[in-house]
Recover the amino acids of this structure.
């Protein structure tokens, strides 16, 4: 297990390196120069081409890509994420706070997605073909296909404009003011959780259905266990594998959702930072954010793999 | 010997895309306490389904018990719902089952001890610790070496034979009145099969547990069972003691079956033809198309029920039950 | 299982409903009576953007008249499109639109109205020397920073020196020299009258030297210390920044507001909702150029708008290819004649957009007489094309600027040009791709670009049409993009002449404008306004009256407390 972990961690680092290199190169292959975009978006009338060149030099953008990448790697190695080209802020300081915010919302959404999705999936599987199954399946399809900004608009209309029970924008960390944080988080979490709920419901339904047909479930029934015990003890754990696998990809979904949700509800997280920096070609910010997101995804996949062993004792690591 | 289970007119159907399949057609039989009853027939003849029906384990939909009673004690098992409390109290506790597939019938995610002791915890008021002791004791009885440590094994860490021993132990652990062994040894190789059967036989005799032994192997049944029910196409077509049937098979199908049992120096005779489709079955004897003795009266005046011929021996064959005169 | 589901749903509903709260909604009543009353006409300095008759380029300001004079209190919440991550305490480190966030705490030497007029602020007077290029500022006395230190010539010189060292100020500013306790002389490389607007930009706000030197740059960045009417209280990066009243502000009795909050809200739906909400969740001021959003919001009785012309969306003909049909003046004219701007506006103007007749809109002095107006004349377009040898038409491409340009209008233009035989292919690049064309040049076609008119119209020419001269070879070239056919030499001369006059001179600026119009360097299409939408209870902010440097006057703004 120990050597397996070390090997996987090394793999994870390799993946992060490869992703960071690809992002690094791809960002620079996209049309558009950040310095030019800075000039045109900010109406910097006093910037002469000479000053633009000087700025490009100062930011190290005039060097060959390989050199830029190595220099950036070195910086990252020292924990220095660099400075935003468009706005001159220290990326590390900025990300530090934003990661927490995105994590809070993302984690809550993930947890809700998992719990609600698994519960609904089990109910649908057990009551297959019944009314509740049909209702939930339709809702799950809506949840999967409806764009999250649209759901957000509906929620805002209902809870903010009509009922006046939830605040429209802003975010407070729960340990600062729990009540306020809760109110501000409900809509963002709901919108983010919708996709995960829908996906998890569908996955749970189908994998529970599959397990329900397994011989050992029949054995469990033959033992005289009641439905609850059969499902919870014998079905769920075995149906969990594909659901756990799904959680790895769920992260992508949540990160993707955070981009929309953070923009709509004015939440200072990583998602809004990523979109804005992508659009303005703020290379160092995009690089820093993608490296962190890649790390989160890679590590959570590792976690998922380790979880497998707990779920299915047949799996061994070597 | 007291009567344990009385099945009357059990009929089970499955809804399929091609029509309604009557998998079990109006069968009746009894099981007395402590006896071993063999149910024999080809695959797909409804022997497993009949047993599942009694246990309330027919997957529904598409399956459904459409008629019959199965009186166990004072309860009609067929009236109980699959999830009902009463049924759960009987299952595993009073009647338990051993399934055919040792590889897949145990939950891969739980240890042997967990899977066995949960039955005790469910049915007996007993602590986890005591349950574990009973489990280890039972594992010893079914011949698992070093049961203290093997109790914490997962199924995949055991061989097929061992797993089936665990299944047997599991079926025995609550000391039920009746065990239904559904092709319990079929998937195992011959030597292990013999060991296991021997062990099962000893155990049920020792505990005075009744057993319904479902198999396609007449040889096995002949060796261990007290009485035999021969099934064909969803019906019991012959019933009697081992002796009666072995000595004087009445139904042509049973006759052919006996010829199928491999014996030294003899050529095994296969039964020509295939079992009939169970959809839209004709009212005539289901074995008719394959029967080498068939006569006109078989078409005209088919016998639909088991008819007692002598002693406990009964058959459904019109020619042998005396219901029609021998024209040949 | 059903119970579990019911429980989960119930908990979710409870969570949602337990968070109940403010449902009261006092609707502000726009006062119908009384005359509009600017708070401090007689106070120093004059906050009115222009001394004279000039109706500032600001359009219809339908600000509801307040019955009484300014009232104290309230929090003004402004939607900001800025990112909100940059520390703003040290202006020379702040680039881009985050500079807007310096307005409440930082003050500048001068002010600039939206029509370009320069006014006093921290400097009460300024003297220009064009011979030996320099500006001498006389500083206001008695102004203190919020850390208690004095604003004087020392501090001013220190600030300007930092701007120069950081390279953030125009390269023509060479040095600053203290020539009296409250007199500072700024030496220039060469004189350009647009330089004064530099000193009105909040990129060059004055900050406390004492605080910076005692605490270091890092701390100074996080803790802005200026002379302004407000002090930064809380900055939640990416969400909001809050400023509270400076009780010791140098203008006695001001500011009126208790606090000012910027909220970094980039989503249009959220902005619209927030503008329509009363109470805690609402916002008070929104700046937008999105016509549809303006229509949506101004439909509300609780809101009014102030608009400010920001120049036309135009076609910029090809820069790379001499053999291009567009290199022929007759073709460019034909394109212009083929476009029915009034029809475009009737269909997609929403009552907000206006047909552009010239490159510089009417609000500026550089606007020319009507003989230069572009007009619609398809027959003439056909004739010109024939003359140029393209009677069978030709094909070209439009590279459409993202965000600022209405794509439906572009499609309509495509159709209009089709009628005279010009086939247009449309390309909608993202902002990166667009800036590549804008700075790298483009073949056979036009940029569809918003050419923003800045308060100093000279700066607009500088940003979009600047020509430089290589002293060694004597060659002229376009500063920000390659070019093959444009009248670079006359433009260069006209730009030099206009820049060198002691003050912005409309007649000289008109000369540049004439060259642009006569050569159809730019084919103007329609003018778009910058629109500030405000709650009825918001008064005297000065939004839309002040140029991009000054932006608004937080010291004057107030909120009716009904």
């Amino acid at each position: 297990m120990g050597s397996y972990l070390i090997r996987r961690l090394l793999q994870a680092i390799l993946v992060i390196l490869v992703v960071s290199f690809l992002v690094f190169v791809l960002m620079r292959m996209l049309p558009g120069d950040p310095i030019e975009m800075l000039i045109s978006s900010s109406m910097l009338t006093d910037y002469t081409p000479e000053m633009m060149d000087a700025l490009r030099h100062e930011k190290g953008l005039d060097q060959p890509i390989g050199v830029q990448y190595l220099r950036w790697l070195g910086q990252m190695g020292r924990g220095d994420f660099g400075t935003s080209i468009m706005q001159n802020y220290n990326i590390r300081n900025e990300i530090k706070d934003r990661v927490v915010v995105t994590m809070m919302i993302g984690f809550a959404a993930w947890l809700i997605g998992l719990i609600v999705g698994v519960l609904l999936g089990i109910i649908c599987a057990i009551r297959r073909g019944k009314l509740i199954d049909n209702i939930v399946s339709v809702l799950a399809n809506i949840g999967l296909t409806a764009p999250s900004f649209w759901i957000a608009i509906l929620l805002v209309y209902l809870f903010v404009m009509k009922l006046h029970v939830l605040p429209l924008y802003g975010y407070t960390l729960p340990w600062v003011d729990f009540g306020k944080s809760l109110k501000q988080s409900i809509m963002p979490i709901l919108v983010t959780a919708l996709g995960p709920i829908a996906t998890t419901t569908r996955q749970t339904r189908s994998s529970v259905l599959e397990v329900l047909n397994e011989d050992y479930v029949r054995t469990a029934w033959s033992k005289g266990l009641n439905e609850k015990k059969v499902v919870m003890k014998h079905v769920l754990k075995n149906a969990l594998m594909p659901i756990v696998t799904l959680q790895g990809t769920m992260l992508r979904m949540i990160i993707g959702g955070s981009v929309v949700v953070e923009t709509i509800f004015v939440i200072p997280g990583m998602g809004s930072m990523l979109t804005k920096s992508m659009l303005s070609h703020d290379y160092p910010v995009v690089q820093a954010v993608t490296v962190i997101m890649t790390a989160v995804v890679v590590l959570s996949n590792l976690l998922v793999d380790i979880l497998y062993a707990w779920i299915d004792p047949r799996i061994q690591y070597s | 010997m007291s009567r344990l289970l009385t099945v009357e007119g059990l009929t089970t159907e499955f809804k399929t895309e091609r029509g309604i399949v009557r998998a079990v057609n109006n069968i009746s039989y009894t099981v007395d306490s402590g006896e071993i009853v063999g149910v024999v027939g080809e695959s797909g003849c409804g022997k497993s389904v009949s047993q599942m029906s009694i246990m309330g384990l027919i997957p529904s939909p598409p399956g459904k018990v459409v008629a019959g009673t199965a009186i166990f004690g004072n309860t009609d098992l067929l009236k109980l719902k699959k999830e009902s409390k009463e049924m759960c109290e009987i299952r595993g506790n009073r009647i338990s089952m051993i399934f055919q597939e040792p590889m897949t019938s145990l939950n891969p995610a739980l240890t042997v001890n967990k899977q066995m002791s949960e039955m005790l915890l469910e049915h007996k008021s007993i602590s986890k610790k005591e349950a574990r002791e009973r489990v280890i004791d039972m594992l010893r009885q079914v011949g698992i070496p070093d049961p203290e440590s093997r109790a914490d094994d997962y199924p995949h860490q055991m061989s097929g034979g061992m797993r089936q021993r665990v299944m047997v132990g599991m079926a025995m652990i609550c000391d039920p009145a009746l065990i239904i062994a559904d092709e319990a040894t079929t998937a195992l190789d011959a030597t292990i099969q013999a060991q296991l059967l021997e062990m099962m036989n000893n155990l049920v005799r020792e505990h005075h547990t009744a057993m319904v032994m479902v198999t396609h192997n007449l040889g096995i049944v002949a060796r261990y069972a007290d009485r035999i029910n021969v099934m064909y196409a969803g019906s019991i077509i012959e019933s009697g003691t081992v002796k009666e049937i072995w000595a004087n098979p009445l139904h042509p199908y049973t006759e052919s079956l006996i010829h199928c049992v491999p014996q030294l120096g003899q050529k095994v005779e296969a039964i020509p033809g295939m079992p009939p489709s169970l959809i839209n079955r004709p009212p005539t004897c289901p074995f008719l198309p394959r029967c080498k003795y068939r006569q006109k009266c078989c078409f005209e005046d088919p016998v639909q029920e088991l008819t007692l011929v002598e002693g406990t021996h009964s058959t459904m064959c019109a020619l042998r039950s005396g219901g029609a005169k021998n024209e040949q | 299982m059903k119970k579990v589901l019911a429980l989960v749903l119930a908990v979710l509903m409870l969570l949602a409903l337990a968070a109940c709260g403010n449902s009261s909604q006092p609707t502000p009543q726009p006062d119908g009576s009384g005359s509009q009353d600017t708070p401090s006409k007689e106070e120093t300095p004059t906050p009115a953007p222009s001394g004279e008759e000039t109706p500032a380029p600001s359009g219809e300001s339908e600000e509801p008249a307040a019955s009484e004079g300014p009232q104290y209190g309230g929090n003004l919440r402004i939607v900001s499109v800025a990112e909100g991550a940059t520390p703003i305490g040290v202006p020379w480190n702040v680039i881009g639109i985050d500079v807007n966030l310096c307005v409440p705490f930082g003050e500048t030497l001068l002010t600039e109205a939206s029509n370009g007029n320069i006014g006093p602020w921290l400097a009460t007077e300024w003297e220009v020397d064009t011979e030996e290029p320099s500006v001498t500022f006389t500083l206001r006395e008695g102004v203190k920073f919020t850390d208690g230190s004095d604003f004087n010539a020392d501090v001013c010189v220190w600030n300007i020196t930092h701007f120069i060292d950081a390279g953030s100020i125009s390269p023509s500013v060479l040095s600053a020299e203290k020539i009296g306790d409250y007199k500072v002389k700024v030496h220039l490389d060469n004189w350009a009258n647009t330089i004064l607007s530099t000193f009105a930009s909040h990129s060059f706000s004055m900050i406390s030297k004492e605080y910076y030197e005692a605490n270091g740059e890092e701390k100074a960045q996080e803790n802005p210390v200026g002379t302004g009417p407000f002090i930064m209280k809380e900055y939640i990066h990416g969400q909001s920044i809050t400023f509270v009243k400076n009780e010791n502000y140098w203008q006695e009795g001001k500011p009126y507001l208790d606090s000012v909050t910027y909220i970094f809200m980039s989503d249009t739906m959220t902005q619209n909702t927030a503008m329509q909400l009363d109470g805690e969740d609402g916002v008070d001021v929104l700046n937008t150029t999105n016509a549809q959003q303006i229509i949506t919001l101004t439909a509300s009785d609780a809101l009014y708008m102030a608009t400010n012309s920001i120049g036309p969306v135009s076609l910029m003909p090809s820069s790379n290819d001499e053999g291009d049909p567009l290199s022929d003046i007759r073709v460019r004219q034909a394109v212009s004649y083929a476009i029915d701007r009034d029809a475009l506006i009737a269909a997609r103007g929403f009552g907000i957009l206006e047909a552009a007749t010239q490159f510089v809109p009417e609000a500026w002095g550089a606007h020319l007489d009507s003989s230069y107006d572009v007009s619609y004349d398809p027959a003439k377009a056909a004739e010109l094309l024939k003359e140029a040898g393209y009677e069978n038409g030709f094909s070209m491409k439009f590279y459409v600027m993202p965000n600022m340009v209405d794509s439906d209008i572009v499609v309509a233009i495509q159709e209009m040009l089709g009628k005279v035989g010009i086939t247009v292919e449309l390309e909608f690049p993202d902002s990166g791709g667009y800036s590549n064309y804008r700075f790298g040049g483009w073949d056979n076609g036009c940029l569809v670009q918003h050419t923003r008119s800045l308060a100093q119209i000279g700066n607009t020419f500088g940003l979009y049409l600047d020509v430089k001269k290589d002293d060694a070879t004597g060659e002229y070239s376009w500063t920000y993009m390659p070019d093959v056919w444009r009248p670079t030499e006359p433009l260069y001369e006209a730009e030099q002449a206009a820049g060198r006059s002691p003050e912005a001179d409309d007649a000289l600026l008109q000369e540049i404008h004439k060259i642009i119009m006569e050569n159809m360097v730019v084919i103007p299409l329609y003018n778009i306004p910058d629109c500030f939408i405000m709650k009825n209870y918001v008064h005297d902010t000065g939004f839309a009256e002040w140029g991009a440097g000054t932006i608004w006057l937080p010291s004057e703004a107030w909120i009716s407390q009904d």
Q: What stands out?
A: The two ends of chain C are 54 Å apart (CA to CA). Confidence is low (pLDDT under 50) at residues 7-46, 49-61 of chain C. Residues 309-528 of chain C form a domain with the Dipeptide-binding Protein; domain 3 fold (CATH 3.10.105.10).
